[in-house]
Amino acid sequence: MKKLFVLDVSGFVFRAYFALPEMRGPNGESTQAVFGFIRSLDKLIKDLSPEYVVAVFDGPNNKQSRQELYADYKSNRDRQLGDLPEQIRLVKQYCELLGISCLEEKGVEADDVIASITKKAVADGFEVCICTADKDLLQLVSSRVSVFNPWKEQEIQYNEVLSQFGVPPEQIADYLALVGDSSDNIPGVSGCGPKKAQALLKEFQSVEELVANTERLSGKTKQMIEDQKETLLLSKRLATLHMDLAFPLTTEEFAFSPQAIDSAQLNTFYLQHGFKALVKHAETATSSIAVQTVTDPVTLKTVLEQLKGGEVGYCAAYTGEHLPSLQLHGVALAGANQVFYIEVSGVQEIALLKDFFADKATQFFGYRSKRDNHALRNSGIDVHVTADLVLAEHLVSGGAKISFQTLLMESGHIQEAVFFSKEWGAGSLPVQSLPRDPLQYFGMLASKLLAIKNYLFVKLEEKGLKDIFETVEQPLEAVLFAMECVGMPLDSQGLAVLDRDLTKELEECSQEIYDLVGCEFNIKSPKQLSDILYQRLGIEPVDKAKSTKAEVLEALEDRHEIIPKILMFRATEKMLSTYVRALPKQINAGTQRIHPTFNQVGTVTGRLSCQDPNLQNIPVRSERGRSLREAFRVKKDNDYFLAADYSQIELRFLAHLSQDEMLKRAFNSGEDIHAFTASQVFNVPLEQVTKQQRYQAKAVNFGLVYGQQAYGLSKILKISVSEAQGLMDAYFARYPLAAEFITQTIEQASKNQKVTTMLGRERILSDWESSPGARAASGRLAVNTRIQGSAAELIKLAMLNISDEMRSRGLKSRLLLQIHDELLFEVPAEELEEMRSLVQEKMESAMELSVPLVVNVLIGKNWAEC
């Protein structure tokens, strides 16, 4: 007999939504419910091999009819589910891709649709298996209807219902009416448990018979039923499924054939939503790419002549780890219809490639190409880059991480996307780490860059981002490349002295901790430290977990003298392991400098990040941080460091973007902004502001830039939440347009699901409804992105303007580092005054704001002096 499998989709989706950790796709959308559904359905199809399947969804306003009977029906489910409806839409899309029919009826619950379709299928001569964990649907079980619980992998038939509930399936609705159902908020009869319900139904068969014959009852049971008979009858109506819905489809139309599934479309869906592990690998993924290998100079010259003057996608194959030591092995080049892999083995090939890449009539397109360009430059080949497409992708995606394979898929290259889903295709990789033939890998990568270029350039135009790409991001990459080539001078001997001093301090600090405890233990072990603090020393924990995280220990700092010493131990140990002992290993033997990588696509705000090593995170204010910075010193006696940083740049952007007159007045008059704010908030004359008041005002000023709320401010200032809220209220009373700017930014971001910087960079913000905490976090990110993202654009413009001017003047000075709102230069003595003037003028004029930009310039022989 034919068998129809009916999927209760809500059960699958709700379980996955709450059981799985949060997952997000490449575009930032939540996907855990979709992923959980796919895995469950795939297993069900594999295990049960269904030939007929229908997926049933709750229709819009599906609880309306029962809520008209009982307003609290399923009210316990009316929590904020945020993005779950969007995930259900994706689940429906997935079912349709599999060829599974989807049913839903407006104003009707899925259970009623399932009941009606089950009745129809049985009448059509089918057996029915309902895939669900919902006990309501057990009332449908019969000789030809079963329920399969996919999570317990258990099929429930007539006898199993009777054994589990003590009543047959046809009495399940009566049973639930008596005992109630907490999952649907069906009230039931207070005081009636399962055994009482079973006994009553055995005697009276139904709720209606029970209510009609209460004279046969006695004592408390009689009183219980008579007092609650209206609730009982209501509960029966709520629990009873409706089986009278009509559907135009015949059961035969629910036929399911796995062989008919379009695997390419399915893979597109997987890649689009970040489910790379689910991609079905296509063996034909590489068949359309014919890569021609070039191994001799004569052929290479011919190939380069063919490509010259056109659009060329390129990528490099290399080995090595640090930028100056990357060794070039080959180059993949792709024109409109041809793909070549050039094995670079001699000076003739390098000479030909050098001329080719320098040709300004040829347009070169790469993907994460800055590292490729280092490998090429190390062989004497400089690339005139037209566009690094990862920069365009980062702008188009609004900061969301989009994989190379997603770009391939969106530009119509599905099979290649499948290939790259198996072999990380976000850019060129060192040869030895590639799992496949590098010829095929790099050939395919280069061959698809032009197609991706066309797709991204259209998107840049549509989103109004072409200008920021062409005038800021792409030219900035050349500036960053030059900075990476120069590197940062570092005195390894100075680090050795610091290593010795900090090691001694660490040993002394450890001994002081042991002395306080009375025994030795592993201070770095969270478990051992927790036992020492909360058990041996009896410190009252601030949370049930008895955590030893930094923020917890900081809250306990005044509880015991050991806490400051532990914090000191951690700070010293981190300084040693992260910087003092790690940095010498990254000094290049040839240049005696370290060469960090600057990343334009590492943050969603547009800020630059720094890695290998991260020099942006070296402490500034601590004594140890200053000692570490002393090790960064110029190599030549005639050279100096020149550091230039913007003064209170984010607050100046707040004044400009909000147009708050009081804030603008403070900056335009040259006042100390924190003292000025303290004067306004505490209502005291400027000259009478105390250090404590200025400190609190400073915390409020910077907290607001980062979207901080009263709770966060209270932690920083170590005051109550109500006191912190009072400070914020006083601040906004004095700066009303600043308050309005923050409110409007959040409202617009929530409405548009994105926020925009001054130059038009977008950041997608889609998580506004999943929880109050998520909404608050999105609001903070909106404000922070608007201000910090615009400030990031300012310093990028300054870097471009300064670099252009240095080049036009033929100066020997070099830009070494960008640390958010600070630039660090290496300057020969004879150019100091010229560079001081040039840098200050270009930084202060990089953007025209309604408040002045102020730049502070310091000069020294080492970084600490700046």
Automatic annotation (TrEMBL):
InterPro entries: 3'-5'_exonuclease_dom, 5-3_exonucl_a-hlix_arch_N, 5-3_exonuclease, 5-3_exonuclease_C_sf, DNA-dir_DNA_pol_A_palm_dom, DNA/RNA_pol_sf, DNA_polI_H3TH, DNA_polymerase_1. Residues 2-257 form the 5'-3' exonuclease domain. The keyword rRNA-binding does not apply. One of its GO terms (biological process) is double-strand break repair. It catalyses: DNA(n) + a 2'-deoxyribonucleoside 5'-triphosphate = DNA(n+1) + diphosphate. It is an enzyme of class 2 (transferase). Gene3D superfamilies: 3.30.70.370, 5' to 3' exonuclease, C-terminal subdomain, 5'-nuclease, Ribonuclease H-like superfamily/Ribonuclease H, Taq DNA Polymerase, Chain T, domain 4. Residues 625-831 form the DNA-directed DNA polymerase family A palm domain. One of its GO terms (molecular function) is DNA binding. Keywords: DNA damage, DNA repair, DNA replication, DNA-binding, DNA-directed DNA polymerase, Exonuclease, Hydrolase, Nuclease, Nucleotidyltransferase, Transferase. Belongs to the DNA polymerase type-A family. This is DNA polymerase I. The gene is polA.
